Amino acid sequence: MSRCDFKIVLLGSEHVGKTSLVLRFVNCRFNASTPYQNTIGAAFCAKTMHSNGKNFNVGIWDTAGSERYEAMTKMYYRGAHAAIICYEPSSYASWTRLRHWLQELRTVEEDCKVYLCATKKDLLDSGVVTQEVPEDIIATYSQGLSGHFCTSSKTGENVEELFQKIVDDCAEDREVMKNVEEMRVQLAKEEAAYRSKNKEYCYC
Questions:
Q1: What would the pLDDT profile of 122-131 be if each residue is shown by its tens digit?
Q2: pTM for this predicted structure
Q3: In whole angstroms, what is the distance from residue 26 CA to residue 109 CA?
Q4: Dist. CA 120–CA 117, nearest whole Å
């Protein structure tokens, strides 16, 4: 039986790099030659992380950014402990859309921790693109949220730091940890019952 201690959802418009961010974090790789493919609904992956001397199984849902999948993706917000809302600093349209994603999230999970993530930092640093979203607007909007990170899935810059901050924040949240411990106790009971039941039917 599997479980996820913390649930993280990724939100953001198409092409902002949500899937690349997840793949860099989980698999430590970036494949620029892979053709772009729309995420349909949501893709799931998991990774074990450490915080406060404990191991946590972190489940990550990479949701579709296309408007035609919105009705489908909203159901993945339920039960999320944290959300990463991605945007491209070189695309003001993706920033404007960011506010829509936050409003949608709050209608489902009002207390979810929210982290803003600027993607494709390597393109900005190399001068391939220019920043369209003013820094002062970003700073003002980030106030009251749980954090803001500028990341590069290509180089890995700030990717691990983003996810580690989320896990650390969840591990320090007493209410979240209370639910995690209760879930672990319940899972242990279910596993014990499962083993006991199967032992009864073992004729070896």
A1: 999 999 999 9
A2: 0.87
A3: 25
A4: 10
Residue 134 — left, alpha, or beta (φ > 0 → left; ψ -120 to 50 → alpha)?
beta
CB 26 within 8 A of CB 8: no
Tokens of 33: 């030659």
Per DSSP (E only), the strands in the chain are 6-12, 42-51, 54-63, 82-87, 113-118, 147-150
Rounded CA separation 49/98 (Å) = 27
For residues 87-94, give the mean pLDDT.
95
Q: What is the pLDDT of residue 125?
A: 95
| Beta-carbon contacts of residue 81 (< 8 Å; ≥ 6 apart) | 6, 7, 8, 112, 113, 170, 173, 176
Please report the pLDDT score of residue 38 as a whole number: 53
Helices (H) and strands (E) in the chain, counts: 7, 6
Question: Looking at residues 138-159, what average pLDDT do you find?
Answer: 95
3-state secondary structure of 105: helix
Return d(Cα 114, Cα 91) in angstroms, integer.
20
Q: Which stretches within 46-91 are classed as H helix? A: 70-73
Q: What is the pLDDT of residue 40?
A: 46
